[in-house]
Amino acid sequence: MTDTFEVVRFGALGTTAELAVTDPAALEPARRVLVDELAVVDAACSRFRDDSDLVRVNEGAGRWIPVGPELIEALLVALRVARLTAGAVDPTVGRAMRRLGYDRDFSQVAPTGPAVTVTFSRIPGWQTVEVDPARSLVRVPRGVELDLGATAKAWCADRVAARAAVATAAGVLVALGGDVTVAGPPPAGGWPVAVGDDHRAPSVGPETVVAVHAGGLATSGTTVRRWSRGGDILHHVVDPATGHPAVTVWRTASAMASTCVDANAVATACLVLGGRAPTWLDELGVPARLVAVTGEVHTFGAWPA
Amino acid sequence: MSRTRARDEGLRRVSTITRGIAVLGVAATGLLAAFVYRASPGRTTVSTTQPGSAPAADPGTDPGAVAPTDPAGPGFQAPTVAPTPAYQNPVVRSGAS
């Protein structure tokens, strides 16, 4: 049996937004939800827009800053992820990321450049972030800069899928930069999703296709979003314990969970945990797949073998 | 004035002063609390639940059920329906971005 899907793709949030629906009539209303949510999340969470709530919080470090409800929710989501990963995925890596050279939209980051002098130091830590939901205020200590790159896209995908499925009553798949969420009634065989190195192209490394029926699927990797400074190859997954790119044990980590936020949190934490990731995954029990730099594939939980 | 009247008068003064101090103390405490609240609004309370085992997939749950992200929600959960092998052309690709 072959399912056909209506699909739309376009650039957003510095990456690719993809939307698929099971009912052609649902495509346009679902696309409007996607465009609307992308605008809301970008205005709240972008690190590269002078007028975003997140930039105002970073620039006003040390003071309580009034923000919109979207940043409040995005921060609470990020702090929960930090807590559940014991700080492996931490929203206070913004300054470390900037010092490493990732200080603008990645398409504008120079692929090479002189060496950067960065001392190895633990980042300030998610516990230093103060959020007052009742008064819609946020405060970070001086010297702390927030970066929601590890959670905001997945959170946005979850929001879009939930809203679009309710609005259309159709099966909906949303993928933002390879962070995938499905909602509503899935196609008969589930949503076929390829899993590999790069969401934009077939992988150099091992690739597989799985059918997703519910929840979220996310992949984090160290083979894309790389740049070089002084001959050192850097990537965007920062280890909060050192403030430097995580030591590369896995070329990709993929996970599935009840939401895309959680799937992405698990996948990113695995890159940071390195050799400790398999034990952690065994304890968690979520379906996951790790690909070592050597190309060796390890699967966990209910991930299809 | 007799010594008794003088003593009673003195006790009344002490009592009045004591009541005044008590009222001023309560008012000052209230003012201080209001000042502290304005200067330093409350933090969110974050529970200290640690990562734990995710429950097994529940086949009785609606596979299309939307599971919105709950900032205060429990630990990581497996999807309500486990992934299965797929033999169709993929509709999208999950990979690093």
Give a written overview of the molecule.
The complex is a heterodimer of chains A (305) and B (97). Chain A has helices at 27-45, 53-59, 69-84, 94-99, 152-168, 260-273, 277-284, and strands at 6-12, 15-21, 65-66, 130-132, 137-139, 172-176, 179-183, 191-198, 208-212, 215-221, 226-229, 232-235, 238-239, 244-245, 250-257, 288-292, 297-300. Chain A is an alpha+beta fold and 305 residues long. In chain A, the strands form 5 sheets. In chain A, strands 1-2-6-7-10-15-16-17 form an 8-stranded antiparallel β-sheet. In chain A, strand 1 (6-12) and strand 2 form a beta hairpin. The longest helix of chain A has 19 residues, at 27-45. The radius of gyration of chain A is 19 Å and the shape is globular. Chain B has 97 residues and is mainly alpha-helical. The N and C termini of chain B lie far apart (95 Å). Strand 8 (191-198) of chain A pairs parallel with strand 2 (92-96) of chain B.
